[in-house]
Amino acid sequence: MEIKDSGNRREFSSGAVRDINEGKGRCDLLPLGVIGEICDNTVFSNINEYIRTGDKMLLVEAIKEFSNIRYGDLNTAMLEVSKHYEDGCNKYGERNWEKGIPLHCYIDSGVRHYFKWLRGDTDEPHDRAFLWNLLGALWTHNYKPEFCDLPFKKEDTV
Predict the structure, then answer these.
(1) Residue 157 above 90 pLDDT?
(2) Is 44 part of any domain?
């Protein structure tokens, strides 16, 4: 199963590129805490709390929980998501994501892929894409603070 490709790209100030997102909705703006309560789903709740607080461990917990649910363990999940990195390399070039992509893009796309995985969509590897986006969010949080554009971001933070 391959990553979908519209053939249209958006380019960020860093030079990184991703597929367009127009018409897909903005899942990063959803009330994920409320959705987490309605669905009794801690993955949504943890992502929501990360957006509000910037506590990276909440994303780590979401990754661990999903990995255990979907793959049975974290090691298998990481081996599976490595295939998504390989596919992304073929689509966008090696290490494109390390150039810098706004944090909200990772959350938006990750949540969308999670919804699609929950719904049972099989048109692309939504499980891998979900993990890839959360890992990208964590990496960006750690190494590209200038791309942290979520509510927890303080204006005076570098």
Answers:
(1) no
(2) yes
